[in-house]
Structure formats: structure tokens, C-alpha cells
Amino acid sequence: MLDKLRSRLVHRGPSLLRTPVKLTPFALKRQVLEQVLGWQFRQAMEEGELEFLEGRWLSIEVRDLGLKWFTSVQDNKLVVREDAPADVSFSATANDLLMIAARKQDPDTLFFQRRLVIEGDTELGLYVKNLMDAIELDAMPKPLRMLLLQLADFVEAGMKHQSAPESNSVGEPC
């Protein structure tokens, strides 16, 4: 019963979040994204590993949430905008992006399964993908890391347990 509920939450959860995400003002989304990205990439910024994004724009779309933003590096700081001329675009579902972030899915595997779509400047896309591969979870702030890993474990378990089709009283699928 709990496995079935978890599976439904994992599969339908993003669609339930779509409306609140859409109604949230972009200024608030930008503030949250810049804070989380700043925490995550602080060390990479300090070590100059994000210089390749200076003056270039990466579009990230979470398809099932209807969430899209553009990020770049300006004055040695990650910035987020609602719209910009994208040099490269990454697109995937919330669950797939979560699994990549938690190191439970390989970006290459999802790319070849067409679950992670990368379009635009191939070289820049490769830099971004390699950066995703190189992210060390231990470098992430502990509260964020713990939340990410717990959520990823929940999603992973929900993805493994596929809900059986429900049936009506005569045994026919609903």
C-alpha cells in the first residue's frame, strides 16, 4: 500500500507542483535558484571551474514542472534570469534532474535514452555535462545534501515500484 502511494507521488507529484510553480513570481524563483546554485557551485566558482559560462547562457527546463530559467556567470557570480539568449539548453523531468543531482543516474545514460535533451553549442553542453558529472556531493552543504539524498531515495523507490493497473468490479481495467 505504501509502495503504491509512493509510486503515485513520484509519478504524479511533479504535475501537482506545476500550478504552484507557475503561479510563483519569477523574482522569488530567481532568489531561490541563485541561493541553491550559489551553495552548490561555490567551490567550483572559487576554483574558476565555471569560467566557461562567463557571458554565455545555459537554459535549464524542468519539463513536467513547467519551470525554465537561464543561468550564466557574471562578475564571478552565478546569475539567473527569466529569459536570455541561450547558448545551450538542457531539458529533463524533475525526477531525472533530481536523480542526476543525487548521482543516482548518469547524464550520459539519460541523454542516450532521450530523457535528458541537450541542444545548442555542443562544446558548451559538454562542459556543463562534465561539470554535472564532477559535482561532489560532499561539497554540498549538509542540509541540502541530506534533503537531496532522501528525496532521491524516495523517488528511486517510487520509480522501481510501478503501480499495477486498477480494475473495476468486473475485473476490467479502469
Number of strands: 5
What is the terminal separation in angstroms?
19 Å
Helix amount: 40-55%
- Biggest sheet layout: 5 strands, mixed
Question: What is the element string, with H for helices and E for strands?
Answer: HHEEEEHHEHH
Low-confidence stretches: 163-174
Helical segment count: 6
Helix/strand-derived category reads alpha+beta
Mean pLDDT: 87
Assess the beta-strand content as a share of residues: 15-25%
Give the strand line-up of the largest sheet.
Answer: 3-2-1-4-5
Question: Could you characterize the architecture of this molecule?
Answer:
There is one protein chain. With 174 residues, this protein is α+β, with helices and mostly antiparallel strands. The chain contains six helices and five strands; from the N terminus they run ααββββααβαα. Strands 3-2-1-4-5 form a five-stranded mixed sheet. A hairpin with a 2-residue loop joins strand 2 (67-74) and strand 3 (77-81). Helix 1 crosses helix 6 (142-160). The relative contact order is 0.16. Mean pLDDT is 87; it is low at 163-174.
Element layout with pairings:
Elements (H helix, E strand, L loop, with lengths): L1 H22 L2 H21 L11 E5 L4 E8 L2 E5 L6 E5 L1 H8 L5 H6 L4 E4 L1 H13 L7 H19 L14
Parallel strand pairs: 1-4
Antiparallel strand pairs: 1-2, 2-3, 4-5
Features:
174 residues; alpha+beta; 5-stranded mixed β-sheet; 51% helix; 16% strand; globular; disordered C terminus
